[in-house]
Design goal:
With 422 residues, the chain is of the alpha/beta class. Helix content is 32%, strand content 16%. It contains 12 helices and 12 strands. The strands form 2 sheets. Strands 1-2-3-4-7-8-9-10-11-12 form a 10-stranded mixed sheet. The chain has a two-stranded antiparallel sheet with strand order 5-6. Helix 11 links the parallel strand 11 and strand 12. Helix 1 crosses helix 2. The chain is elongated, with a radius of gyration of 22 Å. The structure holds iron/sulfur cluster (SF4).
Length: 422
């Protein structure tokens, strides 16, 4: 799932003004998502098309160590006539030293190194483009997979942590109208190893000093890149194990540094709560009322705000992890003080201290409905939540000068390549 920071559009058409459905002050302006075609739409009549169908993959990705648990890796080596116990060493090279280069594995017999790596460490993703921002503290990658499909990841260095935002799908079927990825539709799910390879590259780059500020340890992974992770549930849960399980099974990251973000697939939130993986759940809410959220997050037509917050609260009770509520502040659409109060009331009604709200400021985009709130309006929104006892932290947005919203880099590169072919 993406961080849902709406992209720049440069659209200049006038925005129709409607009145808010409930709770507004008289004369308050209410902009709705349907006041403008979805991002990237080719027709003015286009409407978001929610889809849960996962198209079949065009050919299977080569078998990779990160797709398998340790027993599966041993069995795979044995099946290929290689000693199964080498799976342990191979896994430690991969998860601890972040390498798939046979030449670096000097503790393996010279005559077997190449074959062992060929069996379980094929190349799954290669870099198409890397863009730097924020003085070199942010790097956005565009990756190409074995079948030519492209996905993005973003590596960000903060004072106290280094975080990777990964993609879990190529494209997305959730059709959020502000999101470039959502308008592409879903191409396919990523395999567990295709997700984990994004992490392995980032861990290596960080350790080698690829980010400004010198070598760093990758500490956090957030599933907020391309795709809705819950739609690719099985691969994502296996990826969570590779992230959290200690070497040689996985990277051994702290579960509290791993976040799965969702637009609200309620049954799968409940299923994740039962997996015994105490990762953080982030809910991309963006509106506390169904009338607005039905248009802003199309999956709300299936699971309403109340059901979603009930599931999120149950997730907190099952895992002990405070839930993050993501809320992109969009001018005159969802940034009204009464909506902040409604959100606080909905959260407080279910208990105190179980959720943390992250308002996300957008870029200023004159002429588009997807633009930032006035500074005073943002302050009032945040103050309203805090006065109601809700822990609230305005999110630091990164990579805003490198098309930071999910899907924008992939779309931009595709357009450049098409232009070259013309
Ligand atoms: S369309 Fe998909 S990738 Fe984009 S914001 Fe919605 S869930 Fe996230």
């Amino acid at each position: 799932m993406s961080p849902a920071r709406p992209p720049r559009t440069g659209r200049t058409q006038p925005v129709a003004i409607r009145r808010a459905p409930a709770g507004p002050r008289p004369g308050e302006v209410q902009v709705f998502p349907t006041d403008q075609p979805p991002e990237g739409a080719t027709s003015p009549d286009a409407r978001p098309r929610l889809s849960f169908a996962v198209p079949p993959a065009r050919g299977k990705a080569p078998r990779h160590l990160a797709d398998l648990d340790l027993a599966g890796r041993k069995a795979a080596l044995k099946d290929s006539g290689l000693p199964g116990f080498r799976a342990d060493q191979l896994s430690r090279h991969y998860f601890t030293h972040h390498t798939r280069d046979a030449a670096e594995m000097t503790d393996l017999p010279a005559g077997q190194r190449e074959q062992l790596c060929a069996e379980l460490l094929p190349e799954l993703i290669h870099e198409v483009r890397a863009l730097r921002a924020d003085g070199g503290r942010t790097i956005k990658h565009l990756w190409e997979l074995h079948d030519g499909v492209r996905v993005e990841s973003v590596l960000m260095r903060y004072k106290d942590r280094t975080t990777l935002c990964v993609s879990s799908q190529a494209g997305c079927g959730m059709a959020c109208p502000f999101c470039a990825t959502g308008q592409m539709g879903l191409t396919r799910n990523l395999s567990t190893a295709e997700i984990i390879e994004q992490v392995r590259h980032a861990a290596r780059l960080s350790a080698e000093g690829g980010l400004a500020g010198g070598p760093a340890r990758l500490s956090n992974v957030v599933f907020m890149g391309m795709g809705e992770p819950m739609v690719n549930y099985r691969s994502v849960v296996a990826a969570l194990h590779r992230l959290i399980d200690p070497a040689p099974q996985g990277f051994g990251l702290s579960a509290r540094g791993v976040t799965v973000s969702t637009v609200g697939l309620v049954p799968l939130i409940r299923k994740l709560a039962g997996e015994g993986l105490p990762v953080t759940l982030a809910v991309s809410l963006h509106a506390p009322d169904d009338e607005l959220r039905d248009e802003l997050i199309p999956v709300n037509s299936k699971w309403k705000v109340g059901e979603l917050l009930d599931a999120a609260h149950d997730y907190f009770r099952a895992t002990g992890r405070r839930v993050s509520i993501e809320y992109a502040l969009i001018k005159d659409m969802n940034d009204h003080a009464w909506r902040a109060q409604m959100l606080a009331d909905e959260l407080n009604r279910r208990g105190s201290g179980w959720a943390h709200v992250n308002p996300i400021p957008l870029n200023p985009t004159p002429g588009s409905i997807w633009t930032c709130s006035e500074p005073g309006v943002q302050d009032t929104f945040v103050d309203t939540l805090r006065r109601a006892g809700i822990t609230t932290t305005v999110r630091d947005t990164r990579g805003s000068d490198i098309d930071g919203a999910c899907g924008q880099l992939a779309t931009e590169v595709l357009n450049q390549e098409k232009a070259k072919r013309r």
